[in-house]
Amino acid sequence: MSYFAGKTILLTGACGGLGQEFSKQLLEQGALLILTDIKFGPDSAQDHPSRGRILSKISADLSTREGVEVLLAEVKKTTPCPDIIINNAGIAHVGLFGEQPLDRWDKLMHVNLYAPMRICQYFLPDMKLRAQGHIVNISSIAGLVPLPGAAPYTASKYGLTGFSDAIREEYGRYGISVSSVHPFFTRTAILQSERFGTAIRNEPPWFLTESPESVVKEALLGIAAQQDYILPGVAAKAIDIIRRLNPRLISMIGRNMLQ
């Protein structure tokens, strides 16, 4: 039986490229999904012919504390506590840090880091009481190596990685698993993120990017195995090895991304 079969799963960012693929593959494995995004279109996150089903779709803006509180209250109407939480929602933009508008990177930090922290803080006490649960934080390879031209994004993903490490140490003894997922560039809308100020190199070549399907498939295998760190795709694994063996080479690659 699939690790996800019959489990209630809260998935944020459900309408994005990875979010839709997570929904599809989780439903195929029999999961019961609570989906959330800033808004759902008429054809977004539809039920798939599968063993699982969608319990609810919640429109919530995770860039504000009030929006997260709306989400949490709505989730409680469906379940006291999800079995698995996948913090997938994320945004990005590109440009030298001094040229990025403060309101944009402030919003980014709220969506990418503060919202997952608030969601986890809300549900971890219940997971602890029942001695069961799984937190999955979708970080990035930018949560392991710096991404020049995306300093706020890098900060949010480093923060999410460190947060995952800390709560894993705190709650592992209570039967709660914590996984962080670190994909490389993936062919989703985030590659066309807004740009500010000084030109930064265009999106990476196609052959260096991963498909959402392959990233999610490998991520779910790692989650089911309750791995701490999941590096889906050849590029992510290669960069992780390089950063361990030759950090200076990582720095040279990063600088080459700036025009």
List its traits.
globular; 259 residues; alpha/beta; 9 strands; 7 helices; two-stranded parallel sheet; seven-stranded parallel sheet; 15% strand
Your description of this structure?
The protein has helices spanning 17-28, 65-76, 102-130, 151-171, 212-224, 234-245, 247-255; strands at residues 8-12, 32-37, 53-59, 84-87, 93-94, 133-138, 176-181, 194-195, 229-230. It is of the alpha/beta class and 259 residues long. The strands form 2 sheets. A 7-stranded parallel beta sheet has the order 3-2-1-4-6-7-9, with helices on both faces. α1 links the parallel β1 (8-12) and β2 (32-37). α1 crosses α5 (212-224), α3 runs parallel beside α4 and α6 (234-245) crosses α7. The mean pLDDT is 91.
Low-confidence stretches: none
Rg, rounded, reads: 18 Å
Kindly report the average pLDDT value: 91
- Return the string of H and E elements: EHEEHEEHEHEEHEHH
Helical proportion, percent range: 40-55%
Number of helical stretches of at least 4 residues: 7
Count the E strands.
Answer: 9
Shape verdict: globular
Biggest sheet details = 7 strands, parallel
Class of secondary structure makeup: alpha/beta
Amount of beta strand: 15-25%
Question: In whole angstroms, how far apart are the ends?
Answer: 50 Å
Strand order of the largest sheet: 3-2-1-4-6-7-9
